[in-house]
Design a protein that fits this description.
The complex is a heterodimer of chains A (175) and B (391). Chain A has 175 residues and is mainly alpha-helical. Chain A has 8 helices and no strands. Chain B has 11 helices and 11 strands. Classes of the chains: A mainly alpha (175), B alpha+beta (391). Chains A and B meet through helix 2, helix 5 and helix 6 of A and strand 1, helix 6, strand 10, helix 10 and helix 11 of B.
């Protein structure tokens, strides 16, 4: 691919910083702010695009692990079957199709959320449920903080490893 | 920490116990949902809408000039302008704060206007001039205040921040930190029962209603705006219901008391305004304390210690607050509201921000999707707080 995606993103950033932003009058503050944000988004996207499919695959794999753990917690049969079916579909999909992986992840999370929500009674949730979700969420939040570190919004950005590290240590985060 | 008052295992949560005005504005948001995309208002549109409001207010010979869009918030459209009219002693510089079709939060300009009126003379606030609570004249709900001098960040310290996140105060800290605490103490000591706050419903003292109403409010928003189901958000909603603390005496909670939401003048450093009252409600004072100490609003000092809102370490903030108010802090209740606030921020950043952007119903979708990138910071905070239970 020539010009490749990195070169095109780099060209866009240069045009925004060297030509477009200086041409916007100081009093057009919304336009200036949004131009800077476009530059920020493009910088983050440049760091993301190469890894996006792998990131979604790992996110799906992580959710599958939680779903399988929840399925073993004595759920009502219909919900357990729905959870198992969502996991089975997720495991069987075309792993090279970003949209399919992303959609399967969303679907699986919806079913998981229904399991966690329970029947809306005031009965307290089980310690096992809480433990499983927090264990999952701790890994997920760490991954997301690393994934979005380029935005610089995280107060501990400097302590976060580079995005590439997510895929060097995949086994630690996913099954 | 109390369990649910009067709840039994077979009872169901009352998810509809939400303040009437909040229920109204959330329903109003949903009614606009299929209205298509929203574009930033043009100067001509704003001028015409202001003229309609001022005509309704009975002003004649109205001249609107020097209209300029303002930035800084993540939710409302804001414009500075000069108003002159036949009955005015002099032209005045004003600020219009107006709802887009959807923002990062859906709130009520009428509530905000009542608070600006009530708190005049209590803490520095922008003087209220006009309000159109339901957008009858402005097209969308809006309020107009007098322009207040000052800045949200020091002019001698370089800053690059969105909605105040990431600001530094450095040598301004000795001047600003005491005022930050004192103004919060005054807000919480305010006699709200004697004020005109008809848009507000007070929770019953000595019950868990203060906490549960807040959970219901933001659970409703999550239900309306959720873009992607989130196991942690669902788990935390349950936890918040099961662990709601009793609030002995409700106070006026600012709801967004943090860096970026106060202005001060230079060189004195004197506060000129406490801003952004849109999330205010009657509730538990611990909620404001727990909001101010969130990591995202903090700035690390040179030695690595996090300064809450860029001003002081967490322990010092609590000590100063106790000295200013005489209140007794319940650290378990602080922890509860830290979990609640982080969850609320997930609702706002992950659900509402992305929903508004996907629908194109804000004038700054780009800001909303940018702020959504920090959702995991809040999730991480919750994991640490609730993870203590597992250790």
């Amino acid at each position: 691919m020539n010009p490749d995606l990195d070169l095109r993103l780099q060209s866009m950033l240069k045009a925004l910083s060297d030509v477009i932003l200086p041409a916007i009058p100081a009093e057009q503050s919304l336009a200036r702010d949004q131009t800077r944000l476009v530059m920020g988004h493009l910088t983050v996207l440049a760091a993301h695009w190469k890894h996006a499919l792998n990131y979604e695959l790992d996110s799906l794999s992580l959710a599958c692990g939680l779903a399988e753990e929840l399925a073993g917690m004595g759920l009502e049969r219909t919900l357990r079957d729905e959870l198992s079916a969502a996991v089975a579909r997720a495991r069987a999909l075309d792993r090279s199709d970003y949209d399919a992986v992303s959609a399967a992840h969303r679907t699986l999370q919806q079913v998981i959320a229904r399991v966690i929500a329970g029947d809306d009674s005031c009965a307290p949730m089980s310690a096992a449920l809480k433990t499983a979700v927090l264990r999952y969420s701790t890994i997920r939040a760490t991954r997301e903080r690393i994934w979005h570190r380029g935005a610089g919004l995280d107060p501990d950005t400097a302590k976060l490893p580079p995005i590439a590290s997510l895929f060097e240590i995949r086994g630690q985060f996913t099954d | 920490m109390n369990a649910v008052q009067g709840a039994t295992a077979t009872a169901r949560w009352d998810r509809d116990d939400i303040e009437a005005r909040i229920t109204h504005v959330l329903a109003r948001k949903m009614a606009r949902r299929n209205s298509g995309a929203y574009s930033a208002r043009s100067d001509a549109q704003v001028t015409a809408q202001l003229a309609a409001l001022f005509a309704h207010e009975g002003l004649s010979g109205v001249r609107i000039s020097a209209l300029a869009r303002m930035t800084g918030g993540a939710s409302k459209e804001q414009f500075a302008f000069t108003l002159d009219h036949a009955g005015a002693a002099a032209a005045e510089r004003l600020v219009l704060r107006m709802d887009p079709w959807m923002g990062i939060v859906e709130t009520c300009r009428g509530r905000e206007a009542q608070l600006l009126a009530a708190f005049a003379g209590v803490v520095p606030v922008p003087p209220l001039r006009f309000v159109d609570a339901d957008g009858d004249y402005l097209g969308q709900p809006g309020l107009i205040t007098r322009m207040v001098p000052g800045n949200t960040s020091p002019t001698d310290i370089a800053a690059s921040a969105v909605s105040g996140v990431g600001l530094r105060f450095d040598h301004w800290i000795p001047k600003l930190a005491p005022q930050f605490v004192d103004n919060l103490a005054r807000i919480h000591a305010f006699d709200w029962r004697s004020a005109d706050l008809t848009y507000f419903d007070a929770p019953a003292p000595g019950t868990t209603q203060a906490a549960l109403r807040q959970v219901n409010w933001w659970a409703r928003v999550w239900q309306q705006d959720c873009e992607e189901a989130d196991p942690l958000a669902t788990l935390v909603e349950r936890w918040l219901r099961e662990n709601a603390p009793v609030c002995a005496q409700p106070v006026l909670v600012h709801g967004d008391y943090r860096i970026g939401n106060f202005m001060f003048v230079e060189p004195s450093g004197e506060f000129s305004a406490v801003l952004d009252w849109e999330l205010a409600h009657l509730g538990d004072f611990h909620e404001d304390l727990a909001w101010s100490v969130q990591r995202l609003f903090g700035t690390p000092r040179a030695d690595g210690e996090l300064l809450i809102c860029g001003l002081m370490p967490r322990a010092e903030f609590f000590t100063r607050y106790v000295q200013a108010t005489g209140a007794t802090l319940d650290l378990q209740t602080i922890r509860y509201y830290e979990v609640f606030n982080a969850w609320k921020c997930i609702v706002i950043n992950s659900a509402s921000a992305c929903c508004a952007a996907r629908l194109g119903q804000s004038h700054q979708d780009l800001v909303l999707t940018w702020l959504a990138l920090c959702t995991a910071v809040f999730a991480d905070q919750i994991n640490q707080l609730l993870g203590d239970d597992l250790r």
